[in-house]
Specification:
Structural class: alpha/beta
CATH topology of the largest domain: Nucleotidyltransferase, domain 5
Distance between the termini: 42 Å
Order of helices and strands: EEEHEHEHHHHH
CATH class of the largest domain: Alpha Beta
CATH architecture of the largest domain: 2-Layer Sandwich
Strand content: 15-25%
Number of helices: 7
Strand order of the largest sheet: 3-2-1-4-5
Radius of gyration: 22 Å
Shape: elongated
Number of strands: 5
CATH superfamily of the largest domain: ATPase, nucleotide binding domain
Number of domains: 2
Length: 219
């Protein structure tokens, strides 16, 4: 069994293949383009018994690889960036992509409790809804500011008021959709004090499974 650490970037993916003892068998950087999945799988093909460790698996630029691995039922660990930073600091090593990929694999080896990465359609829908809602909310605030600056009787007030009403309706519709998706994924999150559907949607869409966060000690 080997573990394949992946350090993803928008322009490239760096892989480090480690034995369970921590010995590095391969370190390679490939361009993150339309053929990246084929090239990564070709490199991994030499190691049929493998487990993947991917830093920040929720990033959009790693989505094609995550989907391809999930379709093949490959084991994937989602390694938080903060954990790899801690590991690198302890070792006093400067950051390079190949070193980072190796540390990602080592972090997964040393932390068996890290969550398995599951990129499902429900979470993808939630991310799209959350980001769209945020974009519309920003637009709504801008239109409200524009309306407040117009003098009474301005011919522009009515079309802007119509636009504001339309944006409010769209935001309410999307908020309802977010709430339904949150209930599908982790309904108990909504029972937490101060956590409504919008906050819960952002947390689940961007951070993933909240069970991977340990509770701190009460102060």
């Amino acid at each position: 069994m080997v573990i394949i650490g992946v350090a993803p970037h928008p322009a490239s993916l760096t892989l480090a293949v480690l034995e369970e003892t921590g010995s590095v068998l391969l370190a390679r950087t490939v361009e993150n383009d339309e053929s990246v999945v084929e090239r990564v799988l070709a490199l991994a093909g030499a190691y049929p018994q493998r487990h993947w460790a991917i830093e920040g698996a929720g990033n959009s630029f790693i989505t094609p690889l995550i989907r391809a691995l999930a379709a093949r039922d490959e084991a994937i660990t989602d390694v938080p960036p903060g954990l790899t930073s801690q590991c690198r600091s302890k070792r006093g090593r400067k950051k390079t992509d190949k070193i980072a990929a190796g540390i990602i694999a080592q972090a997964a080896l040393a932390n068996s409790e890290l969550p398995t990465c599951r990129r499902d359609e429900t979470r993808e829908q939630l991310k799209r809804c959350s980001r769209t809602r945020q974009r519309l909310a920003t637009h709504l605030e801008a239109e409200r500011m524009a309306l407040s600056r117009l003098p009474p009787g301005s011919p522009l007030r009515e079309p802007i008021e119509d636009l504001i009403a339309s944006l409010q309706g769209a935001i309410e519709t999307i908020t309802g959709r977010i709430e339904r998706l949150v209930k599908e994924l982790q309904p108990l999150l909504l029972a937490q004090a101060g956590v409504g559907p919008v906050v819960a949607g952002v947390v689940l869409a961007e951070a993933g499974d909240v069970r991977r966060f340990r509770r701190g000690s009460p102060r």
